[in-house]
């Protein structure tokens, strides 16, 4: 029996609640509502981030011909999931999903409904163990061909003590030339006091959250070639006609994102 620890908020379930999902518990909803009262961006950032993810996977599959995705910190299934977007364009796309939260594991079946021409896999693993992630990903993905590494709204749950920049470097180093890194990250650049309050709400419940300034987020892409328009607020990154957040203010979005190619 998996212990879902329903008495403490989990980032995956708080995010699910803020996106309008149903896979959350009272402690998650209480933390989300407290965050909402402290910070107006709490409502907009999750949806804007999710829309960005859809546009990024569409761009990588359609415009760059990427057919393999390693999605670390995938979260609770939220349609359209990465495999639905990628396989909608390239039915042969292969996706490995990774998360460390038992609630995501409990729902992983919904992440495994692959188009028969492609493949999906789910691994219960921690971002802070890149060697294990890489060894398992290689069972589904061909590391002789380009892979897109998706680190979407996960790195702000990893404090400096765990050296997230080093971990990203280790993951990227293992990818072949022509691979991509897509990473989004909460920032306190626009509403510093409000994000401090949200960090404190998580910290009081034993969960690390660390928003970072733009320069520190940019460092995740060191040695890589940023795709146009570079590191931007996610709603300003190649908005399309389906985007619901293009007219929002920067402070309400408060999530930076970029896509970069490994030379
Ligand atoms: C805000 S959700 C983002 C979900 C999805 N990537 C998206 O952007 O829509 C963050 C996810 O990262 C996961 N996560 C946080 N720290 C992690 C770690 N150290 N290892 C694996 N997953 C982690 C959480 O469980 C959660 O599902």
Automatic annotation (TrEMBL):
GO terms for molecular function: methyltransferase activity. SUPFAM superfamilies: S-adenosyl-L-methionine-dependent methyltransferases. Gene3D superfamilies: Vaccinia Virus protein VP39 (3.40.50.150). One of its GO terms (biological process) is methylation. Keywords: Methyltransferase, Transferase. It holds the Pfam family Methyltransf_19. This is SAM-dependent methyltransferase.
């Amino acid at each position: 029996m998996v212990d879902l620890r329903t008495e403490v908020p989990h980032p995956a379930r708080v995010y699910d609640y803020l996106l309008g999902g149903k896979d959350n518990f009272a402690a998650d909803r209480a933390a989300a509502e407290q965050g909402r009262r402290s910070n107006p961006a709490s409502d907009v950032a999750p949806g804007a981030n999710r829309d960005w993810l859809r546009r990024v996977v569409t761009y990588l599959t359609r415009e760059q011909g990427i057919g393999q995705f390693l999605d670390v910190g995938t979260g609770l299934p939220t349609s359209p999931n990465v495999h639905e977007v990628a396989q909608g364009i390239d039915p042969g796309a292969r996706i490995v999903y990774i998360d460390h939260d038992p609630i995501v594991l409990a729902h992983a079946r919904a992440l495994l409904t692959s188009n028969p021409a492609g493949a999906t896999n789910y691994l219960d693993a921690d971002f802070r163990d890149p060697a294990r992630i890489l060894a398992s990903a290689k069972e589904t993905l061909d590391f002789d061909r380009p892979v897109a590494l998706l680190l979407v709204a996960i790195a702000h749950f990893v404090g400096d003590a765990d050296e997230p920049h080093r971990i990203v470097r280790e993951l990227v180093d293992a990818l072949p030339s022509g691979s991509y890194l897509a990473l989004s990250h909460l920032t306190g650049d626009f509403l510093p006091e409000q994000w401090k309050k949200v960090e404190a709400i998580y910290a009081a419940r034993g969960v690390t959250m660390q928003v970072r300034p733009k320069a520190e987020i940019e460092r995740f892409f060191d040695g890589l070639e940023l795709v146009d328009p570079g590191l931007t607020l996610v709603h300003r990154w190649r908005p399309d006609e389906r985007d619901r957040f293009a007219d929002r203010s920067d402070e309400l979005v408060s999530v930076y994102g970029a896509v970069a190619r490994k030379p």
